[in-house]
């Protein structure tokens, strides 16, 4: 029996004073994260990315058996496993109990199944826990209580420690028309300008920043207790760049116009292919994919089914559009003419995995930042 699906508004707004871009509706986090279907280790790209930063910080910060690395929203241990293998003690804090159990069972990563914030940070600090490194990868955008989480960083970080945060970057979001990263898990869309103000309000200072290609363009910020470390030129330079657009209303309105152009382009492309009798499926049962399909009005009239590598998602259906999710091997069984790649942020990895499908004549449609067929 079909059950009604929960639905919430999805509107994007910008604060004219602090530059923070955010959605207006906060879905209770227990509804989104207590039982979660995203396991980071299903992505080879994410695992390799995690290993690289873990090995680098272990070396640069001289981490050893007397150190402690904490990760907030540690998922299935995909990052902390590399520190543990290097002999560095770790602690994961992951609210999704099903994922925390995998981290403990499969990677022996000590994990607390709770939401991170002031309370848990104060409790751990009261027990004598102090972190040399606090990681928070792709989680700050998910947080309703930003002040509580950053205050927790401050409480849990030792005097010479570093908070290392990765988050999708507003600049890349706008430039590449990455509207599909707007979904209810992502409450905020950060510029460095907004992050500097947020961290400063809790006695933390962003001392370094890196631009990353992952997830369509992200920032990796390094923060320390205020006044303990010199601020790098990278921070000064990026803040200067942002001053030219981050408060410019015209810049943000142009983004909205380009989204509508993209919708027309993709819908017309799929319609033309269907008129030619071509078969089309989707790769990627992702949250961003749900945003694109539902906002663009693309469903069973154009798409036969969805494939995804995550065994947790296979056999289920996409929200709103009700497309069945199958294993990627289905591509070789049916050999559809086209595959709309909604997890475009992992395009190189996925197309490499699906080389046989491509060798047989299958083509991928990549929708962001513009529609192209490869």
Automatic annotation (TrEMBL):
Please spell out the taxonomic lineage of the organism that makes this protein: Bacteria, Pseudomonadati, Planctomycetota, Planctomycetia, Pirellulales
Instruction: Give GO BP annotations, semicolon-separated.
Output: methylation
Keyword tags: Methyltransferase, Transferase
Q: Which SUPFAM superfamilies match?
A: S-adenosyl-L-methionine-dependent methyltransferases
Q: What are the residue boundaries of the Methyltransferase putative zinc binding domain, all occurrences included?
A: 2-33
Q: What is this protein called?
A: NDP-hexose 3-C-methyltransferase protein
Q: Please name the Pfam families in this protein's record.
A: Methyltransf_13, Methyltransf_14, Methyltransf_23
Under the heading Gene3D superfamilies, the entry gives: NAD(P)-binding Rossmann-like Domain, Vaccinia Virus protein VP39
Source species: Rhodopirellula sallentina SM41
Write down the superkingdom of origin. Answer: Bacteria
- Segments forming domain C-methyltransferase: 214-369
Q: Name one GO molecular function term.
A: methyltransferase activity
């Amino acid at each position: 029996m079909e059950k009604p699906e929960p639905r919430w508004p999805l509107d994007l707004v910008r604060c004219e004073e602090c530059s923070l871009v955010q959605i207006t509706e906060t879905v209770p986090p227990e509804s989104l994260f207590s039982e979660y279907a995203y396991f980071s280790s299903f992505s080879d790209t994410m695992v390799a990315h995690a290993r690289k930063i873990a090995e680098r910080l272990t070396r640069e910060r001289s981490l050893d058996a007397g150190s402690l690395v904490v990760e907030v929203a540690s998922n299935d241990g995909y990052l902390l496993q590399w520190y543990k293998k290097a002999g560095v003690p770790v602690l994961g804090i992951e609210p999704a109990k099903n994922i925390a159990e995998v981290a403990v069972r499969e990677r022996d990563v000590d994990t607390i199944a709770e939401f991170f914030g002031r309370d848990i940070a104060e409790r751990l600090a009261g027990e004598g826990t102090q972190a040399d490194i606090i990681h928070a990868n792709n989680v700050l955008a998910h947080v309703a209580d930003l002040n509580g989480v950053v205050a927790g960083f401050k409480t849990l970080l030792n005097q010479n420690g570093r908070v290392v945060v990765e988050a999708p970057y507003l600049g890349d979001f706008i430039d590449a028309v990455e509207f599909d990263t707007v979904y209810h898990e992502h409450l905020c869309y950060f510029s460095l300008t907004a992050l500097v103000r947020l961290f400063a309000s809790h006695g933390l200072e962003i001392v370094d920043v890196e631009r990353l290609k992952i997830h369509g363009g992200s920032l990796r910020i390094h923060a320390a207790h205020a006044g303990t470390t010199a601020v790098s030129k990278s921070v000064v330079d990026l803040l200067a760049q942002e001053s030219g657009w981050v408060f410019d209303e015209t810049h943000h309105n142009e983004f909205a116009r380009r989204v509508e152009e993209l919708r027309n382009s993709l819908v017309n492309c799929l319609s033309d292919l269907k008129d030619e009798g071509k078969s089309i499926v989707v790769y990627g049962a992702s949250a961003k994919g749900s945003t694109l399909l539902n906002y663009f009005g693309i469903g069973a009239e154009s798409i036969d089914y969805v494939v995804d590598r995550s065994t947790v998602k296979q056999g289920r259906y996409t929200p709103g559009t009700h497309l069945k999710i199958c294993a990627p091997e289905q591509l070789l069984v049916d050999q559809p003419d086209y595959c709309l790649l909604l997890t475009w942020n992992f395009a190189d990895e996925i197309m490499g995995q699906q080389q046989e499908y491509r060798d047989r004549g299958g083509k991928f449609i990549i929708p962001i930042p513009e529609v192209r067929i490869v």
